[in-house]
């Protein structure tokens, strides 16, 4: 296909500048987003196994609930019945709970002993998975604008520019698409190899990226969109408000758990109940949220659907599961959510989204490298803009990964000093993130890349090592992988330790033996290694001559 050169130059400029202005925040969003594919598994892995109490039989649930609400005031206000077999049979919040995200919630766990008597203990909640999800949704940008996270709005704008970058990139590539798509020309230099890799990943994952860009914009701006519709509809509400109750019920009037199971089964064929969360039970507005999961179904939530009931009358207040009366609206909305969350294809689908998320991060990282290569001067000292962008690229990209790896590594050790460890996750992430950026500016991108990659390799390696040390370290409870998912997380940490180590070796080789007129070449004063490099190069030149 032939396209006029002036048109190609215009789209090239759009692609370059939309990509370079959004690449760093999108890198964080994609990297963290790939991890959120396994958010429940990460939270379970990060939670001490001793916090979960022994399961009970289904016939014992009502007995446990009756004992809990008769002995604990907080339980009488609301509780959670867990059905997954991995959580304690019954829990309720002693501190916190409800909607919103907090770092200091306390949860009481309950079960029955062999004599049928309630046994409880209190623990903090572990929010590692939620914090990674927050990083995915905000890129770590702190602050609120009204009731919206500033980071969500920034990523919404970035997603719009990213959509333009995708379209303009495809147009630029069209004239040579068929000929060069699968050509990874490593023999033509590093910049050509990076460009070929960037194009290949971008084209092969284009449908995924178009979906993510579109749905990210919808998620970021749906509240302002609905607010704008008030100009059309005036004071008439777009959604029917929930009816306020007038009757104050007593918790002793609750039906049996089996009654709820029968009611939910009629509404959600093919689903399994994960948990039932009762709240405000002694008020005029009691609520029951039933969380349901189904393999291979399009679900409104990232990992589940919900049905909201009035717990005393069993009236359905709201459901995210498609019902006949929803018409076309329900399936369309559910598909938008499911396409973003990747929950429609089971475990295989989540692994595919995990891989595509990491490839998306690679796309933005490689885009920045190409921008730097394109502006490379034929001299050792590169321009100030190149030095700033290279330091930002290394510091932000590797710093965000280092922050998450540091939080995962610290999990088992933090419980030695405190039960409330969520605030340590948060402060630890930002310390590592900003130290990585500062280090990248202080020592230069080339040297920082080598050191940070080696640090990442060591951090990933120490994650499974920590699990083994819990068997012999005094004060630590045994915390080796208890199931396949936990073992998989630690195996992936080992794999990424190897990959980061290999990447560090490649970066080191490029710094000492690659193009000298490059932002990635080490200057003589940065290390003694360049002297060896020069000697090595001189020997090579001698042999050649």
UniProtKB/TrEMBL annotation:
Pfam families the UniProt entry points to: PepSY_TM
InterPro entries hit by this protein: PepSY-ass_TM (IPR005625)
Keyword field: Membrane, Transmembrane, Transmembrane helix
Domain of life of the organism encoding this protein: Bacteria
Residues making up the signal peptide according to the UniProt record: none
Entry's transmembrane regions: 20-38, 150-178, 199-221, 351-371, 392-415, 421-441, 453-472, 484-504
UniProt name for this protein: PepSY domain-containing protein
């Amino acid at each position: 296909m032939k396209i006029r050169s002036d048109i190609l130059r215009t789209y090239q400029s759009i692609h370059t500048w939309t990509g370079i202005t959004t690449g760093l925040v999108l890198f964080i969003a994609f990297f963290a987003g790939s991890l959120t594919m396994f958010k429940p598994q990460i939270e379970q892995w990060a939670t001490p196994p001793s916090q979960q109490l022994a399961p009970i039989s289904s016939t014992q649930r009502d007995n446990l609930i009756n004992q809990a609400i008769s002995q604990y005031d907080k339980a009488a206000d609301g509780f959670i019945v867990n059905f997954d077999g991995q959580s304690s049979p019954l829990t309720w919040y002693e501190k916190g709970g409800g909607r919103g995200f907090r770092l200091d919630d306390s949860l009481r766990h309950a079960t029955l002993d062999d004599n049928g008597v309630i046994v409880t203990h209190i623990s903090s909640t572990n929010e590692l998975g939620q914090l990674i999800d927050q990083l995915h949704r905000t890129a770590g940008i702190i602050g609120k604008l009204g009731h919206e996270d500033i980071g969500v709005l920034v990523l919404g704008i970035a997603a719009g520019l990213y959509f333009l970058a995708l379209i303009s990139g495809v147009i630029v590539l069209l004239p040579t698409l068929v000929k060069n798509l699968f050509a990874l020309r490593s023999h033509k230099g590093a910049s050509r190899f990076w460009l070929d890799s960037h194009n290949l990943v971008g084209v092969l994952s284009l449908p995924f990226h178009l979906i993510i860009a579109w749905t990210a914009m919808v998620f970021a701006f749906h509240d302002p969109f609905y607010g704008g519709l008030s100009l059309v509809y005036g004071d008439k509400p777009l959604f029917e408000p929930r009816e306020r109750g007038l009757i104050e019920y007593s918790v002793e009037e609750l039906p049996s758990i089996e009654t709820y199971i029968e009611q939910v089964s009629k509404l959600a064929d093919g689903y399994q109940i994960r948990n039932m969360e009762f709240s405000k039970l002694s008020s005029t507005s009691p609520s029951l949220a039933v969380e349901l999961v189904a393999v291979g179904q399009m679900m409104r939530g990232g990992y589940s659907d919900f049905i909201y009931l009035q717990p005393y009358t069993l009236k359905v207040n709201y459901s995210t599961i498609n019902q006949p009366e929803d018409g076309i609206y329900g399936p369309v909305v559910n598909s938008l959510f499911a396409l973003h969350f990747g929950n429609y294809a089971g475990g295989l689908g989540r692994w595919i989204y995990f891989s595509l998320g990491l490839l998306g991060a690679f796309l933005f990282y490689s885009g920045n490298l190409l921008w730097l290569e394109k502006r490379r001067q034929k001299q050792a000292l590169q321009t100030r803009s190149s030095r700033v962008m290279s330091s930002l690229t290394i510091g932000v990209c590797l710093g965000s990964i280092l922050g998450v790896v540091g939080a995962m590594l610290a999990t088992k050790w933090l419980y030695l000093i405190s039960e409330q460890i969520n605030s340590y996750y948060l402060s630890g992430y930002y310390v590592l993130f900003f130290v990585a950026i500062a280090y990248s500016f202080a020592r230069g991108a080339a040297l920082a890349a080598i050191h940070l990659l080696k640090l990442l390799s060591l951090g990933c390696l120490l994650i499974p090592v920590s699990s083994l040390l819990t068997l012999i370290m005094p004060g630590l409870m045994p915390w080796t992988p208890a199931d396949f998912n936990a073992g998989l997380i630690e195996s992936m940490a080992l794999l990424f330790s190897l990959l980061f180590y290999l990447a560090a070796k490649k970066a080191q080789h490029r710094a000492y033996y690659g193009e000298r007129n490059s932002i990635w070449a080490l200057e003589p004063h940065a290390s003694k290694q360049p002297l060896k490099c020069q000697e090595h190069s001189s020997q090579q030149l001698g042999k050649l001559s």
